[in-house]
Amino acid sequence: MAYILQLESSTSICSVALAKDGKLIDLLESNEGQNHARLLSVFVQDILQRNKINSNQLSAVAVSEGPGSYTGLRIGVSLAKGICYANQIPLIPVSPLQAMAEQVITKQTELGIDSLENTILVPMIDARRMEVYTATYDANNQPVKTVSAEIIDEQAFLSDLDSQKLLFFGNGADKCSQIISHPNATFIPNIFTSAQFMCKLAWKAFQNEQFADLAYFEPFYLKDFIAGKPRKNILNT
């Protein structure tokens, strides 16, 4: 019997899930925005307490590895590493993009998708302006193209769309729906990052002992952080 705690903080969704042998048993999440510093550790404490589980009973902690929000990823990874260090348990990195693809596969019938055969899944995380973090997966959630930052224009994904169906989803897909126009392009609304869809991926990694090095693991930012220009600088009046 293995309890795995899942932490998702790569976007504006703050989400914590608890799984037993890969099966979801509890979930706490908020879509109030960037409140991860305030909510994530509280959610962890609450979800363990209401399931009468101590942190030393956990077998591992899975954390969203990125890409996504710099601040959110740092908060999630810092908390996950702290729990792992304190309890001498392994850390499991999970891609938020692959977890969103898992959500679409799991909810296929609910989403009204007849078949995913010969279809490529394209999760997208907003990277500001007309850029998104994305990757592509097949119907079995196996990677087809690795994670990248893509600037979206009329030519984006055109070569893929000419040969197969693509399903676009995630908080970065909304701004693409007005630009990517092709008969093989389908946009699925209301697919957001959530720790509950990390469970299956984390369980598979746990069974295969695919663990991160606690001492050296860092979030997968993909791009260097660029600080925004202050709106007002008292030294330049």
Describe this structure in words.
This protein has two domains: 3-95 and 193-207, Nucleotidyltransferase, domain 5 (2-Layer Sandwich), CATH 3.30.420.40; 97-188, Nucleotidyltransferase, domain 5 (2-Layer Sandwich). 24% of the residues lie in helices and 27% in strands. It contains five helices and ten strands. It has helices at 36-50, 70-87, 96-106, 158-161, 199-207; strands at 3-8, 14-20, 23-30, 60-64, 91-94, 119-126, 131-137, 143-151, 165-169, 185-188. Strands 3-2-1-4-5 form a five-stranded mixed sheet, sandwiched between helices. A five-stranded mixed sheet has the order 8-7-6-9-10, with helices on one face. Helix 1 packs parallel to helix 2.
**Fraction of residues in H or I helices:** 10-25%
Identify the overall geometry: globular
CATH topology of the largest domain: Nucleotidyltransferase, domain 5
- Strand runs, count: 10
What's the helix and strand layout?
Elements: E1 3-8, E2 14-20, E3 23-30, H1 36-50, E4 60-64, H2 70-87, E5 91-94, H3 96-106, E6 119-126, E7 131-137, E8 143-151, H4 158-161, E9 165-169, E10 185-188, H5 199-207
Parallel strand pairs: 1-4, 4-5, 6-9, 9-10
Antiparallel strand pairs: 1-2, 2-3, 6-7, 7-8
Helix pairs in contact: 1-2
